[in-house]
What we know:
Chain A is mainly alpha-helical. Chain A has helices at 23-41, 50-62, 65-82, 91-107, 115-140, 150-170; strands at 5-9, 12-16.
Amino acid sequence: xxxxxxxxxxxxxxxxxxxxxxxxxxxxxxxxxxxxxxxxxxxxxxxxxxxxxxxxxxxxxxxxxxxxxxxxxxxxxxxxxxxxxxxxxxxxxxxxxxxxxxxxxxxxxxxxxxxxxxxxxxxxxxxxxxxxxxxxxxxxxxxxxxxxxxxxxxxxxxxxxxxxxxxxxxxxxxxxx
Amino acid sequence: xxxxxxxxxxxxxxxxxxxxxxxxxxxxxxxxxxxxxxxxxxxxxxxxxxxxxxxxxxxxxxxxxxxxxxxxxxxxxxxxxxxxxxxxxxxxxxxxxxxxxxxxxxxxxxxxxxxxxxxxxxxxxxxxxxxxxxxxxxxxxxxxxxxxxxxxxxxxxxxxxxxxxxxxxxxxxxxxxxxxxxxxxxxxxxxxxxxxxxxxxxxxxxxxxxxxxxxxxxxxxxxxxxxxxxxxxxxxxxxxxxxxxxxxxxxxxxxxxxxxxxxxxxxxxxxxxxxxxxxxxxxxxxxxxxxxxxxxxxxxx
Lengths: 177, 301
């Protein structure tokens, strides 16, 4: 799984990237801890969802749906665990599992290296992630939650911008093939 | 028969989602006690969070205290200017308050002696040398000031007018070597002139050696000098030395002769009514802390 190879589908050549050993683990842990630190130290950055951005990035890069959904599940459950007793385990896990799967699936079919594509995909994934969270709250937890509001739109845009920049940084963790 | 990879991942997705939904359902049914996985996760992350918190705090401290000081310098300068301005304002307000106290004291005195003609005056100068103790006031002949009129404050006797001009006059203080007033001890009623020595302390002359005088005894004017009316406070005995044929008695002036700012010139020698000593001491502004600001107005009948 750590080998670099190319998916050949028709005329497209999509490269599967591998990272330095431990990079995914360290980056994911760092993202979770930063996310937990935002409400305390930088409340204004609370709108960012770093674990989601990491899930999207590695999903798009690894392009393996199984790996993507498992990584999403792991990050989501860890986020649940760190979110305190008011957030049930599985809440973010379900959302990020879906996103991990979708990102990996789309990454296996499209070239997602261009910043514009990353921006658009990230924005879309943030919206889908929010939709899954709302569904979970309304259907499973029976908690009222608005489907859409301005905060969500702003959050999607901010996360898309932050994700695009963050992905450029994370690209440096890739091992050259 | 091999299962296609796409179906494998879909099945995995379904399984994972189902497991998490069940997990959620399990939690919803049960109470909100902490789960073991939560404890593990928190325990595993806490040291890093603690370290991160420490590092973040240090970083923020270094940034705040060593690098992000551009605005601090400006802010410091602005605060310093504001502080100076506030100090000035406080000083002005204290000065005005002291002035108001003094003028209030003068007004009370005037009201207490409404029938006695008097002129309030502001001290505008003093003797240039130490050889004489005189002051200059801003009232003169136009205001009815004449030579040998007594000058007082609500605290007590100050001196007498020795020279008059059209709009000003000179006052010889009791503490001048040539100054003095007819006086008497309040308790024993012993009469004797009180005079100056050129120092801040007065002396009472001509009290016989066998007369009894107590330290702390009050001295008032006797009216025998034909200048001061009777019973104007002159001072308090601070020291008594036995002498022959006369005692050596030192007197602390009742009026603050070294910090006069407003005075009253009596136009007649009619008797006056003064507050008790205890009342005078309790009057704010009569404690000698008055600033040197000039009053906006003076009492004038």
